[in-house]
Amino acid sequence: MSPTSNTNASQGPDRSAKQRALDDRVIATNSSSIVSKRSVERIYYPNEPHFFRFFVKKFQRRAPLINRGYYIRLHVIDVAVRQFLERPSEKTKVVVNLGCGSDVLPWQCMTRYPELCRNTKFVDIDFPDLIVKKCRVVKETPELSSPLTGLKTDVGSNIQLQSDQYVQIGCDLRRIPDIELALSAFLDITQCEFMFVAEVSITYMETEGADSVIKWASTLGDAEFCLLEQIIPEGKEHPFATTMLSHFEKLKTPLKSVFTYPDLKAQQARFADRGWSQVDVSSLWQIWSSDRWLSADERGRVDTIEPFDEWEEFVLFASHYCVVIAKNYPGSTTTTPNHPETVRKFKTIELPTSVEDTDIPGPRGRRRFGAPLRLRNHVGYDFLANTFGLGTNNRPRSYELYTIWPYEDIKSHHTGPGGRMCHSITDMGDYGNLLTGGRTSPSNALRDCWLFNRIVDNWEQVDDLPIPLYRHAITRLGSSNLALLVGGKSDQSTIFDGCLLYRPGHGWLECEILGPATYMPVFGGLLVCDDEPGQCLINNDRIAEGHRFYGMLAGGISQNGTVADQTLVWRLVLPVDGKPTISFEPLRRHGSESPTREEKEFRELVNRFGASSFVSTYGTLTVVGGIIANGIVPRDLDILIADFIFHKVFVGCRIGVTPKPLLIGISAIFFDGQLVIMGGGATCFSMGTYWNPVCYTIPYDAEYFGKTQMLEKEPYGIGIWGYQKVAEITEQAKRQHTYKLRENDRAAVKIDIPRLQINTADTFLAVLKASKPVIIEGSKLGSCTKTWSPDYIVEQLGPDREVIVHEASSSKMDFNSKNFAYVTKRFGDMMKEITDGHKLYLRALSEGRPSDQPANIKADFPQLAGDFQLPDELSFVTENEFSSVLRITGPVNMWLHYDVMANVYCQVVGSKRFILFPPTDVDQLSFAPGSSSSSIDVFSELESPSLAETYPHEAVLKPGDILFLPPLWMHTASPASNLGVAVNVFFRNLENGYSAGRDVYGNRDLAAYEKGRQDVARIANAFGKLPPDMRDFYIKRLADELLQKSRD
Asked: Is residue 469 within 8 Å of residue 447, measured between CB atoms?
């Protein structure tokens, strides 16, 4: 039978031209889908054979949100099919892909699970026209056809291609008798177990036809069904649902089943009513969060593949897709609802909501993931701002102003911070508003902090964070001028595991975490402080001894990529001197060992990610928006009012306006008896972007909702807030230097480098990825720590062996001034002189080719090399080793410098003190252009104001300690004993980017920097003939533009 006649027969005469046009548009959805799947295949599975590439002519990298969405779609189908194949059976396994499109599931399974596929047949079914094209690709592609034996085409009975492993059937899914006839042509159906897969396919069919397919599949004996398709769990009015439905309507491929089966409960009943004895239903977000489907390690792997921070948008997408796993085996358990109705112990109400006049032309309010700011004009009128955030095309360096009345005297220009998103602004009362961190891209966090003074109406830069952070949780401590910061992300995959206290004039102080390991580090969590009257007795100059604050930390996303199930009470103690301490413990009522039902309900609903939260002076907690562990927040719980003290929910609130706002990325603020919501919205996967169209004003008094008997009178308000104009931030304000702020604390605050034990290679890889220095203790370096005495070393190497050493005239060596000489000494003489206190330092070079070959202890000092070994846990270092350097130190300091390569410094004999500075301090430490060394005497200046804006990290190494030095961390060292012996191993941790050519010491700058310096010279020459003022003007503009590019 020819393809043409095959097609005509399978389409049948009963399809009108209009209906066939719809079929063609459904077929067209395959083209977009496979481009996205090809993107996932190439990026997420680099080490597997790629099969989508044969159906996609040109690779197009999709956005991270789309990649992750298609990844979880592909993954859940893969797991479901693998579990079906693993089920013991004597029957032939048959995997039928209904509406297969150009999916490559058969080849993926045969590659990944060859043993499981030995008694398996894969069947693809789709429209005839599409199957004809797919057949042609398979025949013409050896990588697709070679695994298939007994291959033949145009078999008849709608069978386009048949082989021992794989069959293609070109047939409309509505023609069930024809499909069953085709299956019977090459299968004994009674001796088969079937797995039917329908990934976003039958939802395009009329609901009655789709239901017929589901019912028919249940009649074929032993069978499973995996359905993945869209749902609208909060109704078609939900902004994501509205956008999704509109998208498919515009494509003229409307979703059919979604209205009849809008949620998980309806989908479960759908299958149970059509003959399936066991039905499990989950949303894609629940799949992502379940260890049954996705291990924590796999979620961690996915998180490292590409920069990603669209968590709320991913949850929106994944909550609007369901996965049904239905089974019909003998003995299958009868279906019971796994999504029962939740009975709440609190009321839900609708809040009266006002919106601004929408007749004003032009886009406005279109920014999300900003932060709210309260402002005041010179005559004392208050207004609000939604600061920075993500706009329609970029991260604007501006904020949008909102007022009740159209004031004319609002300042519309400020100097201050650069554009950013996912930052925080904390209202510190009379002290001002503290802006903290944020990010440009997910891999580029910011550390700068700014204070907005409402009295003088301007920004001033204050102390930077010790590390860059975004999506951190921060709260003002009562009515003090202090703030507590917990968690956050410092790059695309590293969660900050500490807590910081902000104190004006003293900057950020690290808190010591006490007690058992109750706290799980998170980002995007909910942090509040109990604002109890009389609690805060603190001024800027003195803290009462042992003063305490307490509050709650809830939710956030943890390292395993799910919303954390933690609701903790924190207690912060501030001593007069010394480090603040903080402890965490599970939230429970006093004297209660197990949580009550009310507490469980409270935890479930306050454990959110990306929510706004507020606590009143009477302990009433208000939570607005965000997402919960189960997915999107139900509309009746958009705003939650709860008792913070007794851990129970008072009331759930829905916003009484149409269209409903999307409470994602909003800027929410309480002001004079009102809750004001500005901005917000989300990218709705590949289906468009939704922006909240207006500002929402909600008369609101949390104490009113906390009454046991609610009053008849509604909360009051003073008017309706609306957009007025944009205030631009056009240039950066001059930083207020830390040492000028600090009257009693003029020195930089040293940070202790953490000590840890590393037991696995993966643990070291995590340390390497975090790119923060650590001291590795408890590892075995071989016998060297016991045997390498001065006499032993001389005996092994020979007293007459000659080496080149640094002989210094001062104990403070300076590479730039060369206050030392390179001299040749016999080894025995050198060791004796060092022991006697002479200022000598050996940095061993290659024995054979010192001018062009890196040092290697095995080649240069084989007599000692056998005594030294890196622990197995540092196998990455061994496998990527660049050089291994023997260092023997007398009483001299190593100058401040940086290494381009990562390295581990293994202390063998004696002890040594290191001071390290993060790469962000480079502009504070006097490194000349093109130089990797500085002349600053760190140990002399560390206590002076000159280094007050830096963030020194301190380590003291003892024998057996290993210091991990990340690339570009500037460091200097001073001996803490008369003799120090160490082995310093440098290794490559970048796949590319290193400079070509000779690099004996492993500290030659990266190729991009070397080329960039040449470009800078050419740019400077291009402006050489201009007048000085014009030259300075344009070069400064270019420098600012380059700095902005580095943040994108």
From this structure: yes
* Least confidently predicted of 85-99, 591-605, 779-793: 591-605
Asked if the model's pLDDT at residue 848 lies above 60, the reply is yes
DSSP structure class, residue 66: H
Contact criterion met (CB below 8 Å) for 853 and 769: no
**Residue at 178: amino acid letter:** D
DSSP 490: S
CB contact at 8 A, 1006 and 1012 = no
Using CA atoms, how far apart are residues 733 and 730, in angstroms rounded to an integer?
10
Q: Is the dihedral of CA 593, 597, 602, 604 positive or negative?
A: positive
Q: Which residues contact 892 (CB under 8 A, 6 or more apart)?
A: 806, 808, 810, 811, 812, 813, 820, 839, 840, 841, 975
Contact 276, 265 (CB under 8 A): no
**What's at 528, amino acid-wise?**
V
DSSP for residue 747: S
Nearest to 984 by CA among 997, 998, 971: 971
Cα–Cα distances in Å, from 979 out to 399, 890, 891, 895? 59, 5, 7, 18
pTM (predicted TM-score): 0.74
> Between 700 and 296, whose confidence is greater?
296
Q: What residues contact 424, with CB distance under 8 A and at least 6 apart? A: 371, 435, 436, 437, 438, 472, 474
Question: In the structure, what pLDDT confidence band is assigned to residue 137 with cuts at 50, 70 and 90?
Answer: very high
Are the CB atoms for 551 and 528 separated by under 8 Å?
Answer: yes
CA distance 436 to 500: 12
Give CA–CA dist 163/182, Å, rounded: 14
Q: Are 648 and 642 in contact (CB under 8 A)?
A: yes
Q: Are strands 347-352 and 648-656 parallel, antiparallel or unpaired?
A: parallel
Query: Tens of pLDDT along 648-696?
Result: 888 899 998 988 899 999 999 988 888 999 999 999 999 999 999 999 9
Euclidean distance between CA atoms 232 and 622, whole angstroms: 27
- Asked if 953 contacts 874 with a C-beta cutoff of 8 angstroms, the reply is no
Question: Is pLDDT of 320 > 50?
Answer: yes
* Four-CA torsion 277, 283, 288, 290, nearest 10 degrees: -50
Taking only the tens place, the pLDDT of each residue in 867-889 is: 999 999 999 999 999 999 999 99
Residues 6 or more apart from 129 whose CB is under 8 A from it? 7, 24, 27, 170
> Which of 413 and 492 is assigned the larger pLDDT?
492
**Which among 253, 236, 159 has a CA at the least distance from the CA of 201?**
253
Torsion sign (Cα): 964, 968, 969, 971: positive
